[in-house]
Amino acid sequence: MNPILFAIVSLSLFINLALAQTQLPPPTSVPPATESAAKAAFGVLQGRWVRVQGGYVITINSVDADGRLDASYANPRPLPFHTAVATSDGNSLKLFFELRAAGYNGSTYTLSYDAANDRLIGVYDQVVVKQKFEVVFVHSKS
Asked: Are 120 and 95 within 8 A, CB to CB?
């Protein structure tokens, strides 16, 4: 056997054996947020939210720990949301709503919770007319 080839094969086997015996540190994991912590964060979203531009209403009855919302929309008649979810990204709460009722055809609200002013701000994407509108919802105390 060629001495250079023998040296390369031997070195390769030695390195692989050394790497196989190297113990890697256990992966670090971030503990998942507890259900009660998630509910507390999402709890501020519950209630009746009135859109400043037009009086449309989003009512959030409850929020699961995973962010699924039990919510409805009124314009002025009640409509169900096809999708209604909230997410927490650090200190910010984001909401996404999709309407598929007749005349809405997938129109969406993408909102953020403004804690300092207790309001929801964001964009309404009205897909039927292909327009986006900046919107503000205020938390109704009644």
From this structure: yes
pLDDT per position as a tens digit, 83-118: 999 999 878 999 999 999 988 999 999 999 999 999
- Helix, strand, coil fractions of the chain, as percent rounded to 5: 20, 45, 35
Residue type, 31: P
Judged by average pLDDT, the poorest of 33-37, 63-67, 137-141 is 33-37
If you classify domain 35-140 with CATH, what class do you get?
Answer: mainly beta
Q: For residue 27, name the pLDDT band (cuts at 50, 70, 90).
A: very low
**What is the chain's Cα-based Rg?**
26
Q: Where are the domains of the chain?
A: 35-140
